[in-house]
Amino acid sequence: MKVGIDLIHFATSDYFLGLDTFASQKNIDVEKFTIGIGQEKMSIAPPDEDVVTLAAKAAKAILDQVDPQKITAVLFATESGVDQSKSAGAFLHGLLNLPKRCRVIELKHACYAGAAALQMATALVKSNVKEKILVIAADIAKYDVDSSGEATQGCGAVAMLVKDSPRILALESGSGYYTDDVMDFWRPNHRETALVDGKYSTMVYLNSLKHAWTHFNEETGRTFQDIDYFCYHIPFTKMAEKAHKTLIKKTKSEVSDAQFEEQLSYGQSYNRIVGNSYSASLFIGFCSLLDFAKQNLVNKRVSFFSYGSGCVAEFFSGVIQPEYQSVLMTASHQQQILQRQALSYAEYLNFYHGSDLSQENCILPEHNRGSFRLAAIEEHKRIYIAR
Ligand code: HMG
Questions:
Q1: CATH no., domain 3-386
Q2: pLDDT in tens, 33-87
Q3: What is the CB neighbour count within 10 angstroms for residue 15?
Q4: Residue ranges covered by each domain of the chain
Q5: By the 8 A CB rule, do 58 and 11 touch?
Q6: DSSP code, position 252
Q7: Which stretches make up the Hydroxymethylglutaryl-coenzyme A synthase C-terminal domain (predicted)?
Q8: In degrees rounded to 5, what are phi and psi of residue 376?
Q9: 3-class SS shares of the chain: helix, strand, coil, % to 5
Q10: Residue 271 in contact with residue 211, Cβ under 8 Å?
Q11: Cα separation values, 79 from 44, 110, 213, 215, Å
């Protein structure tokens, strides 16, 4: 039985900060960002946008095409959760009127949890073909102002319908994984922003890739040459390029510049202008490959490298299915990107400091133009509205 991604759709916020604006504010050569880390824009969430509203925006387009009453589980991956106890998926379940006969859970391990949710959903469907699972990966990447990570912020959510006979990607059995207890990036419970040892985090990412690849290769027997397109976790696009070079070296592969470009670049277009979206980033990269590839991808093998700081990594693969082009939501992705509004640095700071959500009561100013927004906090309860 084939199991995997039947539909995929991503959402981002209505606002962005250009790295040109950022560079001139900080008096830094813009090429440090456009060339050095390979980023142009960061999606910025206003205070009335959070992972629940982003996830709802991402999932709605899928639920418009399938009967929501048939969804059997929501696996919600995030590292920017909104409550220490109640899962973000439970808020989402209410906003989207999902059936009561449904299981909901939140998964966390930094940027890795989206891949974990996808693997778990696949296993659930393999054990019961009736399962139709909504996998969500949603995050808002937020670092301290003037920290090394500030230029690598962003936000986004991906929704995937995982079922049997998938129309986009059939996941293949066998994967390679790796865990190590390290402190490269973390966010203690009392902090809204992440702490990071930036240079160290890039080293740990690449080291994890080598280990996860070795395990993948041993488990599946697949080699570098068996893979047509490579999707990596993309905190910034230059990181994926470093990853691909590392894998080429590790596997002693011969790859021309044109092949390198073909294997990697389609999967980077959205991420370059959305920024880091943590758990969603790998799958926004996959949407980018699907939407921008010039060749027909049918029967092509795509690999996925998920890296979550702290750290857990996994390398796995899937095969693109014959009907994939007929179910892509490219127009919706591009429309969202096109309608984003540019922020000045001062406006970005205004959103950044936003409203104090730790208050017992507050009403949030209306900036989020999407179908779902966080409207208020009432007696410490989040009040969402759909419109
Ligand atoms: P930095 O100190 O701002 O930048 O840190 P830099 O001085 O290292 O420069 C970056 C690159 O730009 C360098 O190239 C420079 O040479 C180049 P490289 O040596 O890397 O090839 N450069 C220029 N190029 C052209 N023209 C110029 C110019 N100036 C410099 N004028 C750092 C960079 C990545 C550390 C920083 O952005 C950071 O701390 N980011 C956050 C952490 C991060 O994204 N880590 C990635 C791996 S960990 C991960 O992916 C997990 C994560 O997503 C979280 C999770 O799992 O939950 C973060």
A1: 3.40.47.10
A2: 999 999 999 999 999 999 999 999 999 999 999 999 999 999 999 999 999 999 9
A3: 22
A4: 3-386
A5: yes
A6: T
A7: 175-247, 248-341
A8: -165, 165
A9: 40, 25, 35
A10: no
A11: 16, 5, 25, 26
Kindly state the greatest CA–CA separation across the chain: 61
Q: What is the DSSP string of 300-356?
A: -EEEEEEEETTTEEEEEEEEE-TTGGGG--HHHHHHHHHT-EE--HHHHHHHHH---
Where does 69-153 show beta strands of DSSP type E? Answer: 73-77, 103-107, 133-141
pLDDT of residue 108: 98
* Encoded tokens for 135: 């996998």
**CB atoms inside a 10 Å sphere around CB 117:** 27
Instruction: Give yes or no for a contact between 21 and 30, defined as CB atoms under 8 angstroms apart.
Output: no
The whole-number pLDDT of residue 170 equals 98
User: What are the residue ranges in the chain where pLDDT is below 70?
Assistant: none
3-state SS, residue 222: coil
User: Positive or negative, the Cα torsion across 43, 37, 187, 108?
Assistant: positive
Q: Which residues line ligand 1 (CB under 6 A)?
A: 29, 31-32, 35-37, 79, 110-111, 148-149, 151-152, 185, 196, 198-199, 201-202, 205, 233, 235-236, 239, 276, 278, 307-309
Cα–Cα distance measured from residue 230 to residue 234, given in angstroms and rounded to the nearest whole number: 12
The fraction of the chain above a pLDDT of 90, given in percent, is 99
**What's residue 305's pLDDT?**
99
**pLDDT given at position 356:** 86
Report the alpha-carbon distance of residue 354 to residue 15 in Å, rounded: 14
Query: Which pLDDT score, from 0 to 100, does residue 236 have?
Result: 98
Q: Which pLDDT value is given to residue 354?
A: 84
Average pLDDT across the chain, whole number: 97
One-letter amino acid of 375: A
Task: Out of 182, 201, 272, 307, give the residue to mutate to test ligand 1, the one with the largest number of ligand atoms within 8 Å of its CB.
Answer: 201
